[in-house]
Automatic annotation (TrEMBL):
Its cofactor is Fe(2+). This is Fatty acid desaturase domain-containing protein. The histidine box domains are involved in binding the catalytic metal ions. It is found in: Membrane. Its main location: membrane. GO terms for cellular component: endoplasmic reticulum membrane.
Length: 305
């Protein structure tokens, strides 16, 4: 553990900023996996393609259901065995340990679209999309590696174990895929699949704070974006989420497809998901941007008269 803390706590200065071991490892890892993905046309097989699609759903929904709605926002409860299962699926998305992911996301909601937001759009599209991944200090506020806002998870040995062993699980996944299906499985089911899931998730931080529409009075730049509602298993209804961050459901309208919510609802029906949180109609009416604009216009007309 002391060796891991040294990697976090000992930054070096180059290219105009400080970097620590985690930042450098992130650059190397993401560069390598993008380069491996370039081999995709030369190693295509249908079995590798469909396995990549299957793992896109397994790991992607792992992130949205576990890391995001279950652990970060406590939108519902699961039996521990099932909670840990979904968290382990999310580990293989290459988006960090549960402690890291939840910590940065809680900071995002605490400081949304300000300079203290880990992936603030104030630094431009590149930074909010992927540049923030290479800046440990920006993500967690310091180089001490303590992750102050996830005390609830740090009390659970399973999440501490995943935090300190996280890279080994991802490497093991690559080894298993290669042993089963050779280069096609490594290229498609690991590299291509991982890159797709990563950039879809990153787009919630960048694109969904720049392009789309706002329905709710959230006081930030969050937008609903139908494309990423589809690709990110319901996460693209991002203005909905920022209006009611505790909600287990993010696609509120019938046409707002929310794959993650459908799974949560199924788990609720069979008795596995409990304490499922949803906004009431009264809460929605209070938060509607249209109602706020209408109220302001009404007060303005009254003053004019």
């Amino acid at each position: 553990m002391a060796r891991l803390l040294w990697v976090v706590q000992k930054p070096v200065y180059f290219l105009g900023r400080q970097w620590n071991g985690v930042d450098i490892a992130s650059v190397v890892t993401l560069t390598a996996i993008h380069l491996i993905a370039l081999l995709a046309p030369f190693h295509f097989t249908w079995s590798a393609f469909w396995l990549a699609v299957a793992l896109y759903y397994v790991t992607g929904v792992g992130v949205t259901l576990s890391y995001h709605r279950n652990l970060a926002h406590k939108s519902f409860k699961l039996p521990k065995w099932l909670e840990y299962f979904f968290a382990y699926c999310a580990v293989h998305s290459l988006q960090g340990s549960p402690l890291e992911w939840v910590s940065s996301h809680r900071s995002h909601h605490q400081f949304t679209d300000t300079d203290n937001d880990p992936h603030t759009p104030n630094k431009g599209f590149w930074f909010s999309h992927i540049g923030w991944i290479f800046d440990y200090h920006k993500r967690f506020g310091s180089y001490d590696g303590r992750l102050y806002n996830v005390g609830d998870l740090k009390r659970q040995n399973f999440y501490k174990f995943l935090h300190y062993t996280y890279p080994y699980h991802c490497v093991a996944c690559g080894v298993v895929l290669y042993l089963i299906g050779g280069m096609p499985y490594l290229v498609w089911a690991l590299a291509v699949r991982t890159i797709f899931v990563l950039h879809v998730t990153f787009s919630i931080n960048s694109i969904c704070h720049m392009w789309g529409n706002q329905v709710w009075d959230t006081g930030d730049l969050s937008k609903n974006n139908w494309l990423f509602g589809l690709l990110a298993h319901g996460e693209g209804w991002h203005n909905n989420h920022h209006a009611f961050e505790y909600s287990a459901r993010q696609g509120f309208e019938w046409w707002q497809i929310d794959i993650t919510w459908y799974l949560i609802r199924f788990l609720q029906i069979v008795g596995l998901a409990t304490d499922v949180k949803l906004p009431t109609e009264l809460q929605k009416n209070r938060k509607l941007l249209f109602n706020k604009i209408s109220s302001i216009e009404g007060r303005f007309e009254t003053k004019v008269k």
